[in-house]
User: Which sequence fits this backbone?
């Protein structure tokens, strides 16, 4: 059975590819798009509009291409940095965000997190719910843009070095940094690509003081 299709607005794809070029350089992005079988975007990138035409499978293809280009651990690091860039640099470009530039660095974690998840999952009719625990927030994605549509032969590759959906972690971390002015750790604790029923993430409530690359 063919998997259901989900689409991002073109603006999300436009910002994602802009950040990819910033992280990987022009030549690196060209190689990445060839690996992802998305070479049409080299000369014709998605337009900067809100028309929902960018299939989330293409985000998943880009994540897999990151891994192929840099091996899993390094590739997921590139996906994490790209996700960070999308939300940290461009969070105010999306209409779901009820805050203005003057609010940056002033938004509470509990208020910022639902907005970031809504932007990240705008291909869904409703964003996933967030569960608050004593020291963390948790959310799950049944439809994850980092691994959606991967076939079983891809899922059999070695996932042990680091969680597969680092790009999602990066998006949440980058958005929180921009809106709250603080850094928070986001970890994937279960993944569809590791035969989980959903991709599950936790966000630490405590501000992170680790060194970030």
Assistant:
């Amino acid at each position: 059975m063919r998997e259901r299709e989900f689409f991002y607005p073109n603006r999300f794809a436009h910002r994602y590819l802009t950040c990819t070029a910033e992280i990987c350089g022009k030549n690196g992005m060209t190689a990445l798009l060839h690996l992802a079988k998305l070479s049409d975007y080299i000369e014709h990138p998605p337009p900067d509009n809100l028309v929902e035409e960018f299939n989330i499978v293409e985000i998943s293809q880009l994540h897999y291409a990151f891994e192929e280009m840099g091996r899993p651990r390094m590739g997921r690091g590139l996906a994490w940095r790209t996700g960070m860039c999308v939300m940290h640099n461009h969070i105010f470009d999306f209409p779901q965000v009820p805050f203005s530039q003057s609010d940056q660095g002033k938004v509470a974690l509990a208020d910022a997190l639902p907005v970031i998840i809504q932007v990240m999952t705008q291909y869904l009719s409703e964003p996933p719910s967030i569960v608050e625990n004593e020291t963390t927030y948790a959310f799950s994605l049944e439809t994850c843009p980092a691994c959606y549509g991967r076939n079983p032969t891809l899922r059999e590759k070695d996932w042990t070095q680091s969680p597969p959906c680092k790009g999602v972690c990066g998006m949440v971390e980058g958005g929180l940094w921009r809106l709250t002015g603080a850094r928070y750790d986001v970890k994937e604790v279960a993944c569809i690509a590791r035969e989980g029923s959903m991709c599950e993430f936790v966000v630490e409530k405590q501000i992170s003081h680790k060194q970030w690359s």
